Amino acid sequence: MTNKNSIKIVFLLLSGLILLFIIAPLAGMFLHTSLPQYKETLADAEVMSSIRLTLWASFLGTIIFGIASIPLAYILARKKFPLKSVVNGIIDLPVVIPHSAAGIAILGIVSRGSLVGQAGESIGINFVGGIAGIVVAMAFVSIPFLINAARDGFAAVPEKLEKAALNLGASPWRVFFTISLPMAKKNILSGLSMMWARGLSEFGAVIIIAYHPMITPVLIWERFTSFGLAYARPVAAVFVIVCLVVFIVMRVLSNSKSDA
Amino acid sequence: MLELNNISVSFPGFSLKNISLKVEKGDYFTVLGMSGAGKTLMLEIIAGLQRPDSGKILLNNQDITNKNIQGRRIGLVYQDLCLFPHLTVADNILYPLKNKKFSKQEKSKTLEKLAGHMEISHLLERYPKSLSGGEAQRVALARTLASNPEVLLLDEPLSNLDVKLKSELRQLLKKINLSGKTIIHVTHDYTEAATLSNKVALIENGVLIQTGCPDDVFRHPVNEFVARFRGYKNLFKCTFESGVNSQNHNIARINNEIAVLLNEKIDYHKGFIVVPEQDIILSEAMLETSALNRFKGVVKEFYQMGFGMEVIIETGVDFSVVISQESFQKMNIEKGKELWITFKASAVKTLNG
What we know:
The complex is a heterodimer. Chain A is an all-alpha fold. Chain A has one domain (about 55-260): MetI-like fold, CATH 1.10.3720. Chain A contains 13 helices and no strands. Chain A starts with a helix and ends with a helix. By secondary structure, chain B is an alpha+beta fold. In chain B, helix 2 (about 90-100) crosses helix 3 and helix 2 (about 90-100) runs parallel beside helix 4. Chain B has helices spanning about 40-45, 90-100, 105-115, 135-145, 165-180, 190-195, 215-220, 225-230, 325-330, and strands at about 1-10, 15-25, 30, 55-60, 60-65, 75, 150-155, 180-185, 200-205, 205-210, 235-240, 250-255, 260, 270-275, 280-285, 295-305, 310-315, 320-325, 340-345, 350. Chain B has two domains: about 1-230, Rossmann fold (3-Layer(aba) Sandwich); about 235-350, CATH 2.40.50.100. The chains are: A mainly alpha, B alpha+beta. The interface of A and B includes residues 161, 169, 170, 182 and 183 of A.
């Protein structure tokens, strides 16, 4: 066997195993769920309401926190400042810390006795045990996906184009909205869909802040601990299918928009 | 109109030193220099993209040294054009107008006028990535002109174009200039400077060496650098001796052996001489003429040129001579053949150095 052939075989074998590692559990879950179970789950009001809540809360978190974090991504791409690498490290923190710990940390900020919690209550927003808390927890753990993608997108826009726009008489605001943002759009849309997808799957941070209203990952965990695998699996299978469909639709839409 | 007074700026490994120049309204001012001489940096300072460490920039007698980029009314066409890839040609050209309170009618009138002027009306719906180099250059010019700048800065505008497009664009640039637009054009190409400008400046290592009208600058180069830029091939380092022969002629001695007779009176000891190749006569026998400089040499090399032949004659130093194809064939020139070169003392230009 030649060296070229042996490397090809080893690489193909390992690639196949890794793909199998990802596909097998998901395929097993779908195949172990019967058609009547799918039908029953889709007719379960509690399941459907939790899926709607999960999609909505993650979407809300992505929109509010995502838009607010675009300027930070731009600054990180364009400006040089002391301790920039520390700031970049801070942005990645939510990804590396245990999400239950992230939940505890957020709870400290939004609990009823805290400044933010009290301010929220004064305008009718309850973080603990409320949708606002779920939105904050989902955004906290998923925001690095957007900031990193947007930062890379802005960094890929040649600074010369921005200067050319200024030279043509545009204000810095106009340069940002007509040159920098549209040219980084593909990365930003990809970051937004990743942020939204990551928010959907959050469990650890959300369960600490809001067990109820129940998002789907919490519902799956509750059914598993209370009734066992057979009851949790159909919910998990339906949720994964819904997420996949929505995620694919979003990617297709964002790609077609950014290619336009 | 535009004045640079003692502009200096330093970067690690490079600096512009005390750049001073004056550009009048309607001038076509070309800055000539090698790559890395500081030409682009100079344009960026004028456009406000870089701030000088010291010195002043005046536009119509107003100090604009610290004015922001968008408020300067100085349009820069970058060497790589910087067209906005996500906008159509029409939107690129209209970009400067969307800023201001122009009516839709005014915008479309300006677009139509500029596109017609630049001959790009058929490209308006296209995106920059689908344009050829010449088309993109015209779009970039149209876009900058749409901002109606007081001064148009061009960074090597002809550098990436083929010969035909170069010639077309040269005519276009001349047309823009003749319509009253003041232009500062930087390039490393002598021909561009000679054919387009009414003023030139030569820059070397961040320092302006010589400024003036092209004829003056290239006829009377102040140093070897300027002479080499002119493209003179017969440029020799030499020492000067005064009144050494019976007719009291001055002599330029090359490599301490070849003596070239001069008409000029020289008051310096070392320098350079230039013998323009078109002023040298090539012959098979020594010519009995009034020309004082006659040297015997052998053919070292010869090259085909556009309309003739360049022949290199080794006489102790290499002289480049340009002759017609007809003369080349008539003399039956081949490598190693002995020939004579003849030129007048008055044809020799001297440079201090």
